[in-house]
Design a protein that fits this description.
The chain is mainly α and 104 residues long. The protein has 3 helices and no strands. The longest helix is centred in the middle third of the chain and has 29 residues, at 49-77.
Length: 104
């Protein structure tokens, strides 16, 4: 998937029609972390289970700690604790050393 995030112009085919992204844009928000209605029906009905899990975990952390710390923590989270290899959201095993991971 080629995607640079919800705020970019480079979106995956799934993200191009995302109701969550559209909602935030309509409200003038950078993301759900700014919305008083979080979590809403759009989040609860999110079709990709790992994405929903990440949203429900990450947004409260973002609100509590701010953008700079949230970004640093997210970047640190998605690395293998055994070998340091970058991991994808939803990864169950490191592609390099094969250790099981649960980062989401």
């Amino acid at each position: 998937i080629r995607c640079k995030g919800c705020l970019s112009d480079t979106l995956s085919v799934f993200c191009q029609t995302c109701g969550i992204r559209s909602c935030a844009q309509k409200k003038g928000y950078q993301g759900c972390h700014e919305c008083g209605d979080f979590p809403c029906a759009l989040i609860e009905g999110f079709a990709i289970p790992v994405g929903k899990r990440v949203i429900l975990r990450a947004i409260p952390h973002w609100r509590e700690h701010g953008t700079e710390k949230w970004v640093a923590d997210e970047e640190a989270r998605y690395h293998c604790p055994e070998c340091g290899q970058k991991l994808f959201r939803g990864a169950k095993r490191c592609n390099k050393c094969k250790v099981e991971v649960d980062v989401d």
